[in-house]
Amino acid sequence: MVISDSTWCWPANGRHLRDISLACEGIPIAPCDSLDWKVKGRSFSFKAAWEAIRVHHPTAPWANTVWFPGAIPRHSFCLWLTFHKAHSTLDILQRLGIVQTSQCPFNCGHDESINHLFFACSFTKAVWVKVLKLNNCPTPTSWIWESTARWAVGRTKGKQFHRWMRRISLAASIYHCWRERNNRIFRHLVSSPSRVEERICFDVGSKAAFCRNILDSPTNRAIADNWDIDGSIFKSPELGF
């Protein structure tokens, strides 16, 4: 609070406010004076303050692929890093002199990079093939991250259940492949592709089980059957939906 009973009342311990308080000393305050946020009568909110001071940029074309209702936060954050190519992959660490080799930890004989890890590596490719199959998606012709990103932007948009499943399973695949990679490097723990697939299926299936009133179409029913999701997520004809 900087005004009390129509007088200036600056915080005593606010040294950084001293210049402002000195500048305001000669400004009289009438009993009817009040503080407004930018526009008279408009209440203050942290959201409005942030919108006023932040630097605005165009929305990324992949934003809705990463952040969407029902997303798993840790998965979305990992996918967000991937779209920004911000993961500390071994090729980057080697260029910085932090590690001596950039050989892929999945022992495929290639160097690790974002484009290799998602999903040119034979290990992660096997995982991604399984996830695509569960979503009834065709096998891609290119296995690097650039092509996966283009696929995600073009084939996951929309509110339809099968497109929501593509988004959440893509994020889960990125997260669990990255987690397996870290387990091998830092914890010396090794899992098979099938075990990683099980983790993805568990996370995706558990989240999808909370969906309700999904359109009971052949496409959606096939996806639910593939992922072993209970049919209770579909609209009930008895209720007239």
Describe the model.
It holds the Pfam family zf-RVT. This is Zf-RVT domain-containing protein. Residues 44-128 form the Reverse transcriptase zinc-binding domain. This protein has 241 residues and is mostly helical. It folds into 2 domains: 3-53, no CATH class; 63-239, no CATH class. It contains 11 helices and 2 strands; from the N terminus they run ββααααααααααα. A two-stranded antiparallel sheet has the order 1-2. Helix 4 crosses helix 9, helix 7 (122-134) runs parallel beside helix 10 and helix 9 crosses helix 10. The termini are far apart.
In short, what is this structure?
This protein is an all-alpha fold.
Can you give keywords for this protein?
241 residues, mainly alpha, 2 domains, two-stranded antiparallel ribbon, 11 helices, 49% helix, extended, RVT-Znf
Coarse shape = extended
Radius of gyration computed on alpha carbons: 26 Å
> What pattern of helices and strands is seen along the backbone?
EEHHHHHHHHHHH
Average pLDDT score: 90
Distance between the termini: 53 Å
Low-confidence stretches: none
- The helix fraction, in percent, is 40-55%
Number of domains: 2
Report on the biggest sheet: 2 strands, antiparallel
